Amino acid sequence: MTRKIRTKPRKEALQERSKATVDAILKATTRILVKDGYDRASTNKIALAAGVSIGSLYQYFPSKEALVAALVERHMSEMNAVIQAEIGRLMGAPIQETVESAVRLMVEAHSVDPKLHKVLVEQVPRIGALDRIEGFEAEVTALVRHYLESKREELVVRDLDLAAFVVVGIVEALTHAAVLGRPELLGEPFVHEVTSVVVRYLTGGSPSTNPRPTRGRKGTPLS
Amino acid sequence: MTRKIRTKPRKEALQERSKATVDAILKATTRILVKDGYDRASTNKIALAAGVSIGSLYQYFPSKEALVAALVERHMSEMNAVIQAEIGRLMGAPIQETVESAVRLMVEAHSVDPKLHKVLVEQVPRIGALDRIEGFEAEVTALVRHYLESKREELVVRDLDLAAFVVVGIVEALTHAAVLGRPELLGEPFVHEVTSVVVRYLTGGSPSTNPRPTRGRKGTPLS
DNA sequence: TCAGTATGCGAGCGATAGCTCACAAATGAT
DNA sequence: ATCATTTGTGAGCTATCGCTCGCATACTGA
Predict the structure, then answer these.
(1) Chain A residues 122-181 with a CB less than 8 Å from chain B
(2) Crossing angle, helix A188-203 and helix B160-181, to 10 degrees?
(3) How confident is the model over B59-84, as pLDDT tens digits?
(4) Is residue B117 pLDDT above 80, yes or no?
(5) Three-state secondary-structure class, residue B155
(6) Which helix (H) or strand (E) holds A111?
């Protein structure tokens, strides 16, 4: 079922029409992956769906793993782009506002292609690309850690490393769970709720944080 | 990669020595699953590792999926046992203490067999057994929802469904991330930190919640 | 002792997976 | 028009998978 792993694509350069081929392959991979999951997504099926031959597929992606890794790469870049576009603006504002914007940003980033995101996270085995994801998380955590440092005096939390871990974990997990499992939960009430969790944790519950009442909803996260 | 799915084991009853066989198979499945992941864990390999023939394996488990499903079932039961054993005692105490105990309980439950837990969560495709997990989460959320209701007057959160979702999500995710990715983080400081997150969120930051200072640690969650 | 049943075995079947390679078509430079 | 290079093709190889089935062996009660 699983083969040897090559490391280099048979052809590196992409010129002219070949870009279209590569794009078709990646699009088809997304479709099949979302529809069938990693296991049942065979390279033959993907090539067929892309309207190219398997030969072509293997000219650009040396293995099934590499193919999926490329998808992961691309998807992470898109999420990253959403975040990097705004991140600079946030740092100056009061904590409450900064956190709120950051949460909103996270929700947006996760909403880029939720279905693909879901398969990628849930089904893709430990291919090398997983390191990419963990590296990304590490970067975000470091960034948060830095921010906390700069606001140290306004915070009641003492261990900033632990706090960064906790904050990133909370936002990631809740966003993730909501986007993937209960998309109807998303929206401003959700953003405010998560914001209030984080702000109260960091500041010990500043009085200005009293949340607007939110409408009734059912709650059941995934994992 | 994937075959038809049968529904009934070829033999139902387990008597005497056959229990040992079943046990060996499940133990081997755990080992191989942890070592190789779901894809590369072939039934032949598992039978070999268990020291039994594939024939025997298929006498007790009608398919690979059923085999893994049985593992999931068993693992969930063990986690459940840990929780059920203590859950009754918690409800009476003040919020702070109840939450703290619950968090500790969650950590313990996740520590039953972390490596197996990791594969099961990360790698096992949507086999029927996944419903089991989601059902479990739903139960827990309902329980929390109920508890929140009973403490309604002491809380500042208004939407209890949303709050239950948030609380369960937070505890699950942080415990999960810590157990799987940064086990060295676990311990009393971690429990206190998570507790304080939850309590401040629910109560708006009661003054008694000021945490003991925790020692320096690095923080980087997984997903 | 010996039939009858529960348990265990493993060669091998059909299916399908990932992937290769010899070749053909398209493209671009001259 | 010619040729070199890039790009595309798909029949088919090998490996391995999940799983079956006819048979051997161990155990049980009479």
Answers:
(1) 122-123, 125-126, 133-134, 137-138, 141-142, 145, 156-159, 161-166, 168-170, 172-174, 176-178
(2) 60
(3) 999 999 999 999 999 999 999 899 88
(4) yes
(5) coil
(6) none
